[in-house]
């Protein structure tokens, strides 16, 4: 009888221990696991956003370099000497004689919204030399860093006898207007 009462007492004691100590601990463990999962998800989101921010920050740090590169082929101001030096350098590299060169600033095309206006510098020049050298000159103008358009081209024979031709070209070079 004592052993049956001891067994009932131990059963009642174990149920009380379970209800008052173990069951609340399970609820606390479940709450802590949910909290851990939430914190891990929050940390993952933070880490992802931090990486994106670092990438964007690195891009904007290089913005000054980008602006310098952009101003090389699309100058940020009216610079006649830059455009003339490009034409002269390409003609000189292709063994063409530069007979004359004139420049004229055309009207500025207005920009839309935050975009600046576009200025146009018209360059008219006469070059003399063989046709093969002129073809190389035109190929170099196409790949030149300065943004430009060929507006007109006229080819004439040189007045002096020989294989040289005279090329009258009109080029529009573009820049950013303030």
Low-confidence stretches: none
Order the strands across the largest sheet as they lie in space.
Answer: 1-2-4-3
CATH topology of the largest domain: Alpha-Beta Plaits
Estimate the mean pLDDT confidence: 84
Structural features:
178 residues; alpha+beta; 2 domains; 4 strands; 25% strand; rod-shaped
Describe the structure.
With 178 residues, the chain is of the alpha+beta class. The protein has 2 domains: 2-61; 72-177, 2-Layer Sandwich (Alpha-Beta Plaits). Helix content is 54%, strand content 25%. It has helices at 2-61, 63-73, 80-93, 131-142, and strands spanning 97-105, 117-129, 148-157, 165-177. The chain has a 4-stranded antiparallel beta sheet. Helix 3 packs across helix 4 (131-142). The longest helix has 60 residues, at 2-61. The protein starts with a helix and ends with a strand. The relative contact order is 0.12. The model has no long low-confidence stretch (mean pLDDT 84).
Please specify the SSE layout and strand pairing.
Elements lengths: L1 H60 L1 H11 L6 H14 L3 E9 L11 E13 L1 H12 L5 E10 L7 E13 L1
Antiparallel strand pairs: 1-2, 2-4, 3-4
Helix pairs in contact: 3-4
How is this structure best summarized?
It contains four helices and four strands; from the N terminus they run H-H-H-E-E-H-E-E. By secondary structure, the chain is of the alpha+beta class.
């Amino acid at each position: 009888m004592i052993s049956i009462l001891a067994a009932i007492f131990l059963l009642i004691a174990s149920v009380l221990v379970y209800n008052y100590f173990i069951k609340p601990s399970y609820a606390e463990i479940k709450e802590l696991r949910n909290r851990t999962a939430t914190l891990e998800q929050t940390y993952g989101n933070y880490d992802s956003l931090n990486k994106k921010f670092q990438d964007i920050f690195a891009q904007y740090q290089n913005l000054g370099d980008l602006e310098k590169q952009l101003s090389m082929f699309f100058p940020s101001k009216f610079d006649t000497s830059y455009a003339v030096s490009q034409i002269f350098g390409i003609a000189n590299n292709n063994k063409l004689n530069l007979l004359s060169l004139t420049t004229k600033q055309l009207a500025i095309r207005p920009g839309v919204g935050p975009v600046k206006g576009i200025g146009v510098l018209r360059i008219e020049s006469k070059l003399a030399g063989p046709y093969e050298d002129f073809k190389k000159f035109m190929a170099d103008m196409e790949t030149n860093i300065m943004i430009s358009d060929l507006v007109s081209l006229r080819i004439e024979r040189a007045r002096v006898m020989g294989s040289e031709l005279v090329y009258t070209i009109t080029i529009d070079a573009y820049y950013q207007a303030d």
